[in-house]
Structure to design on (997 residues):
């Protein structure tokens, strides 16, 4: 396979990870496309016709097209060369969802860049033009598989412009990573007697008997609780909430799910972090070797999710883009 | 049905290119095929506008069958020629338009477009056609570019401009390849043969044949002499020799291909019977396509070092390839205008050139016998016959009356009106009656000299026939009886010879040649002809031989590997120059427009005495300026905000215009503040 280990190593040496890369002759590859090969075949047939009919003007036109083929190398290369590709922000996502990365393209000088295509996933390439604007921000999505730090790998940036006979491309490592939270898994209820507030009162949340209200669907919610009638009417996914009482402080403890493996526990804890993040409750997290005091607010929630995402993972990034 | 929508920019140019490419073919296409082209184009437009969908499978089958039947019927079943092949290509090209489901299909349409464009050169190769085809190629290239632009690109003119730029940049390299790419002889004979009418003189002659040819203003060939051009009475362009006579029609000998002399072979016996006595003329001829095998030369021609040419037993030159001259053909000839041909006449030729079918034209025979009896020698007899033409009231006319069975009798004694074939035919008849070997020569006489490019243009109306008479000890001698009747025809051409009867180019009212008396028009035409001549010589006529000739004037010891090396070197040097040109803007401006604007702002502030310190960030600079000059604070802050927003906020629309506005606002404020 062409993206073999050897090739990866060579790429890493040649195009080391960097936050911003200026594309130039040292990192652009260029080869004829299939259409380019057909075009050469066309020229070959034209030359044959010219020879057999001893027709100078057919020679001339065949040579003009051959020169066009060669000149198009310069234009296709020039369309990529001089572009600065800069890493933007990486937005976190839950495992299984698309993580989004923003990449900024900017040009130097007057030269226009058209029909630039980029992306990590060959099936989901995004196009960009730099004609009037000097920079463009593109948002690219990469499907995540599991929690941790998602390094999407090498970004493919390519162009066929202007004539499609050549493809110029580069594989650049922008050294970006998105935090991937565990996949939230709905836990029917918090096992009783564990989530204890300061007053020592037992939590009885998510009872099934007491309809509490609607809220927006969030990943991990059970489909059984989706208000389908309302969805059919409005198109908004709402979830029926059943709750008994609201407490002020909750401890999300690793030991709440004693019979589950590590990932399943993290998924359930993640669900609760998301759920509690929408309430007024304060919540804290206890993991082996880690205790986070209860708190609330988006930053607190993100902190917890991040800890869940990176719990017991090697510090190095998750390899590969899938 | 499909997810692929061809970009608008591409479709616009694709349809334009298609029209441009097909239009010149229309005169050769059956009407059906043209209608299919129009139909497919309209259908494709409707598809683009969303009114119609792509045709279904059966509709397409109907189109294909209609196209094939159209070609079959239109060319009356002769489907193996060049025109039907091109028509087939055109049909495939337009039908593919209706099948553009994928980007790949669009590429096929474009590649077919390039191919249809070159087929035009199989039929015409003049400068206007070349320019037109170049224009069509620009259109096709624009379609190709449009295909690779994003859907949002909606400026077709810009696409066209880019296509032009690309092709203009390609032209220098094209010229290098054109001049230096080793030209080789055809790899195989092309089976396709154009069904275009054969043109020029034919290989048989009966009364009226040449007169009808003389109505045509078409160019037959051009001849360029290396030295001074011989006078018009010397310019008898020998093409064919007609020796057989059946009482009505003159034809060539039947065993023409026996013992022909080709350059590579040893000289046959008959070829040794050319005595060259001087007045050597070297010239080259560019023959227009005739689709015939005969070539024209002045007597007595030598066999030139050209593998395409052979000499026949009647001392005419012939093109050796079976399909005849299908494109302009350039060849060089050396002729000795003083010569003796075949002084040792073989019995076979003597028998053939004295043969007459018995019985016909008794009055002509009687006259011949009378004149021969009075003559002292063969030469004297020839003179007496010529004097007969001069003395009688013969009229040289392009509109001779139709003659009956004894056509020579009727011509000589009754109508006495005729064209060159009447004079030559009756003359040879009378020679043979007296037992003197004589034959008809067909070709052209005279031509129009173009002083600008130093060539003689010979047109179809210069077609002529004359006689050759064999004398003991002198061989074949040219005798032109037409000269006795109309010396103007020989000295000044057909136009003055028939000036009184208004028959010159009577069927071609728009021919330039008809208006030769208008001097400025004459000059313009000669200039255009001169340009066309150089084009024919150096572009259209650039073949393996001319390439060798041309290159050996600049390089000694030229060979294939040196040529290849030279070609590649110049090609890539030129490509390098184009590269510098294409990629030149890369490092000329290291600063972005945003940075440039900010620097200008800093310079303006420096003039106010507020120089930005090294290492001072935009916001701290802003704070210092605002404190020193509170009046400028709002405009300065606006610039700083725009600048930092554009430089550091990745999501900001990166367009330097807002910053430029802010800087301008600051500038006005600063200027007014100072006043």
């Amino acid at each position: 396979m062409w993206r073999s280990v050897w090739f990866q190593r060579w790429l890493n040496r040649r195009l080391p990870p960097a936050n911003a890369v200026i594309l130039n002759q040292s990192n652009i590859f260029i080869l004829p496309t299939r259409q380019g090969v057909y075009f050469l075949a066309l020229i070959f047939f034209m030359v044959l016709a010219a020879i057999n009919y001893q027709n100078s003007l057919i020679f001339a036109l065949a040579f003009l097209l051959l020169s066009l083929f060669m000149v198009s190398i310069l234009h296709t290369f020039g369309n990529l060369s001089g572009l600065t590709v800069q890493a933007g922000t990486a937005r976190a996502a839950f495992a299984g969802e698309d993580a989004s990365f923003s990449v900024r393209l900017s040009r130097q000088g007057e030269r226009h860049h058209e029909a630039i295509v980029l992306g990590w996933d060959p099936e989901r390439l995004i196009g960009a033009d730099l004609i009037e604007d000097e920079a463009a921000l593109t948002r690219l999505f990469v499907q995540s598989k599991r929690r941790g730090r998602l390094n999407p790998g090498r970004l493919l940036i390519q162009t066929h412009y202007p004539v499609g006979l050549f493809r110029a491309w580069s594989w650049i490592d922008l050294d970006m990573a998105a935090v991937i939270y565990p996949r939230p898994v709905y836990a029917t209820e918090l096992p009783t007697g564990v989530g204890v507030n300061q007053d020592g009162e037992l939590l009885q949340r998510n009872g099934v008997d007491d309809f509490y209200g609607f809220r927006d669907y969030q990943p991990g919610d059970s489909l059984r609780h989706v208000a389908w009638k309302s969805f059919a009417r409005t198109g908004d996914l709402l979830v029926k909430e059943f709750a008994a009482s609201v407490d002020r402080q909750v401890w999300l403890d690793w030991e709440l799910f004693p019979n589950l493996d590590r990932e399943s526990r993290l998924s359930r804890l993640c669900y609760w972090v998301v759920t509690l993040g929408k309430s007024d409750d304060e919540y804290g997290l206890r993991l082996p070797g880690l205790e986070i005091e209860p708190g609330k607010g988006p930053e607190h929630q993100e902190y917890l999710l991040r800890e869940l995402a990176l719990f017991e993972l090697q510090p190095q990034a998750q390899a590969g883009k899938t | 049905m499909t997810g692929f929508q061809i970009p608008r920019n591409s479709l616009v140019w694709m349809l334009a290119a298609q029209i441009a490419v097909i239009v010149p073919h229309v005169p050769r296409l059956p009407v059906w095929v043209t209608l299919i082209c129009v139909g497919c184009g309209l259908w494709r437009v409707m598809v683009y506008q969303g009114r119609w969908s792509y045709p279904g499978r059966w509709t397409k089958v109907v189109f294909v069958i209609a196209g094939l039947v159209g070609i079959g019927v239109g060319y009356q079943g002769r489907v193996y020629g060049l025109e039907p092949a091109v028509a087939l290509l055109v049909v495939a090209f337009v039908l593919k338009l209706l099948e553009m489901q994928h980007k790949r299909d669009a590429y096929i349409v474009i590649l077919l477009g390039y191919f249809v464009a070159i087929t035009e050169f199989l039929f015409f190769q003049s400068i206007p056609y070349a320019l037109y085809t170049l224009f069509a190629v620009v259109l096709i290239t624009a379609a190709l570019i449009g295909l690779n632009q994003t859907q949002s690109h909606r400026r077709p003119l810009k696409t066209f401009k880019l296509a032009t730029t690309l092709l203009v940049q390609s032209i220098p390299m094209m010229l290098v390849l054109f001049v230096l790419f080793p030209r080789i002889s055809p790899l195989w004979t092309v089976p396709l043969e154009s069904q275009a009418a054969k043109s020029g003189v034919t290989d048989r002659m009966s009364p009226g044949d040449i007169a009808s040819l003389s109505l045509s203003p078409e160019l037959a060939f051009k001849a360029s002499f290396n030295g001074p051009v011989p006078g018009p009475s010397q310019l008898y362009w020998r093409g064919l020799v007609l020796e057989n006579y059946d009482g009505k029609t003159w034809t060539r000998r039947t065993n023409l291909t026996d013992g022909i002399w080709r350059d590579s072979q040893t000289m046959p016996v008959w070829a040794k019977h050319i005595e060259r006595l001087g007045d050597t003329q070297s010239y080259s001829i560019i023959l227009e396509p005739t689709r015939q095998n005969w070539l024209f030369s002045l007597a007595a021609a030598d066999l030139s070092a050209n593998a395409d040419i052979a000499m026949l037993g009647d001392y005419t030159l012939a093109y050796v390839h079976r399909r005849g001259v299908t494109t302009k053909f350039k060849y060089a000839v050396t002729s000795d205008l003083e010569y003796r041909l075949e002084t040792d006449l073989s019995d076979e030729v003597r028998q053939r050139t004295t043969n007459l079918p018995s019985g016909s034209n008794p009055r002509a025979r009687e006259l011949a016998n009378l004149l021969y009896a009075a003559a002292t020698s063969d030469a004297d007899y020839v003179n007496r016959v010529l004097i007969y033409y001069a003395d009688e009231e013969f009229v040289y006319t392009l509109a001779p009356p139709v003659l009956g069975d004894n056509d020579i009798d009727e011509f000589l004694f009754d109508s006495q009106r005729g064209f060159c074939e009447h004079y030559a035919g009756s003359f040879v008849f009378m020679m043979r009656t007296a037992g003197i070997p004589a034959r008809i020569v067909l070709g052209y006489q005279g031509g129009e000299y173009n002083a600008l490019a130093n060539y003689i243009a010979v047109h179809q109306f210069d077609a002529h026939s004359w006689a050759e008479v064999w004398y003991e000890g002198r061989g074949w001698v040219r005798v032109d009886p037409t000269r006795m009747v109309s010396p103007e025809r020989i000295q000044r051409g057909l136009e003055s010879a028939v000036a009184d009867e208004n028959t010159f180019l009577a069927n071609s009212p728009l021919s330039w040649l008809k208006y030769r008396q208008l001097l400025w028009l004459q000059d313009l035409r000669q200039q255009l002809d001169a340009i066309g001549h150089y084009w024919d010589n150096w572009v259209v006529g650039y073949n393996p031989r001319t390439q060798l000739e041309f290159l050996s004037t600049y390089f000694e010891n030229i060979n294939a590997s040196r040529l290849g090396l030279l070609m590649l070197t110049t090609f890539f040097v030129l490509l390098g120059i184009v590269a510098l040109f294409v990629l030149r803007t890369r490092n000329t401006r290291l600063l972005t427009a945003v940075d440039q604007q900010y620097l200008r702002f800093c310079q303006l502030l420096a003039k106010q005495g507020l120089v930005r310190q090294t290492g001072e960030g935009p916001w701290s600079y802003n704070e210092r300026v605002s404190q020193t000059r509170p009046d400028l604070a709002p405009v300065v802050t606006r610039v700083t905000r725009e600048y930092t927003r554009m430089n550091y906020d990745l999501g900001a629309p990166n367009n330097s215009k807002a910053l430029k506005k802010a800087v301008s606002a600051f500038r006005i404020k600063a200027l007014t503040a100072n006043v």
User: Anything to note?
Assistant: The mean pLDDT of chain B is 84.
